[in-house]
Design a protein that fits this description.
By secondary structure, the chain is mainly α. Helix content is about 80%, strand content about 0%. The chain has twelve helices and no strands. Helix 4 (about 100-115) packs across helix 11. The longest helix has about 40 residues, at about 1-40. The N and C termini lie far apart (about 70 Å).
């Protein structure tokens, strides 16, 4: 008796599965045909009717998969629908370009567009950085003990209050060859990347910790400017710093601005929900941070090689000035708007 009932249940389930498949198989096959054509790169040959029907066919297949799982239809149908829905999702909602095309769009206008979109935050960060440098200078000028608090120990080797002009000039001198500088480049990248990531990551607290990080970093620079100015080496120090500093400080500026952008969106979401405002700001800031990483790589290479191998003051200023002009032109004069990047 039980065997008879079991056979009847299996036959009923098979019948339901067959009816379910026959009622919808035409749409599944059409979706599969469209997806296969898109996967083979023949998207442009699709008719307007097929393009318009694609989202509806995808939703139908996804709904069929949900029903098939809920009613425990045969495993072959479920496996087929899972594969079809996965392929269709990628074509309907997935990315339309590979990494090479994305990277070309990123460099070809996506990054500069994202930077221009956060220009209020860039101005705020710039003002704080300038204020930090002035503050560091004034603190050390009033009390030299501040120098030891503001300047990290690895920078205060021979560059300390009371050092002679000759000693400070030696600190600005060049290396004779490049070997060993690659390791120095890695160290500098790690250090500068840490500062930039910290400035960005702390933006979630409404941007206030980000401002403090920028203030502290630039106070260090202000203290060192005071030190070299005291021995009449302001121009030489500025030239030494400019080789990598115009790139490195620009990167830190953008990292801080990206953090501020997220914090400002959280504090003042406007008419949007807090989640929507933060998500939009986060996507834009992520593009900026990707650019910051590349700038820091360039800054580390400039600091370890160009600065250490080029000794002339005016040669160093030329390199630093050229880099600054190039970054300004790229971010604010390059107005191309590639598809796929939010502004």
């Amino acid at each position: 008796m039980n065997a008879v009932l079991g056979t009847a249940e299996i036959e009923a389930a098979t019948l339901r599965s067959d009816r379910f498949r026959l009622a919808r198989e035409g749409e599944w096959r059409r979706l599969e045909h469209l997806v296969s054509r898109m996967e083979s790169g023949r998207l442009r040959k699709l008719s307007d009717e097929d393009v318009l029907a694609l989202p509806a066919l995808y939703r139908t297949a996804a709904s069929s998969l949900a029903v098939a799982r809920e009613t425990s239809l045969d495993a072959a149908t479920i496996v087929y629908l899972e594969g079809l829905v996965r392929r269709a999702w990628f074509q309907v909602y997935g990315p339309r370009q590979g990494f090479a095309r994305w990277f070309a769009g990123f460099l070809g206008g996506g990054l500069s567009q994202a930077v221009r979109a956060i220009w209020p935050d860039v101005l705020i960060a710039l003002a704080v950085m300038v204020a930090g440098a002035v503050t560091g200078w004034l603190l050390v000028a009033q009390d030299q003990e501040w120098y030891w608090s503001l300047v990290p120990s690895q920078f205060a080797d021979t560059r300390v209050p009371g050092a002679s002009r000759e000693v400070l000039l030696q600190a600005l001198s060049t290396e004779k060859s490049a070997p060993g500088l690659s390791g120095f480049a890695a160290f500098l990248f790690q250090n500068n990347a840490g500062v930039s990531i910290l400035a960005f990551a702390l933006g979630f607290a409404f941007g206030i910790p980000t401002l403090l990080v920028l203030l502290k970093e630039m106070a260090t620079l202000g203290a060192m400017l005071w030190l070299f100015h005291g021995q009449g080496l302001t121009l030489e120090f500025a030239a030494w710093l400019s080789v990598h500093g115009t790139t490195e400080l620009f990167a830190i500026l953008l990292a801080g601005a990206a953090g501020l952008h997220v914090g400002r969106a959280m504090a003042f979401p406007g008419e949007r929900s807090l989640l929507a405002a933060t998500a939009e700001a986060g996507r834009r800031a992520a593009i900026v941070m990707a650019g910051v990483v590349m700038m820091l790589v360039a800054a580390a290479l400039l600091e370890s090689f160009a600065r250490e191998l080029v000794g002339g003051t005016w040669d160093r200023l030329l390199i630093g000035g050229t880099m600054l002009a190039a970054w300004l032109a790229y971010f604010f004069a390059f107005r191309r708007r590639p598809a796929g990047f939010g502004g």
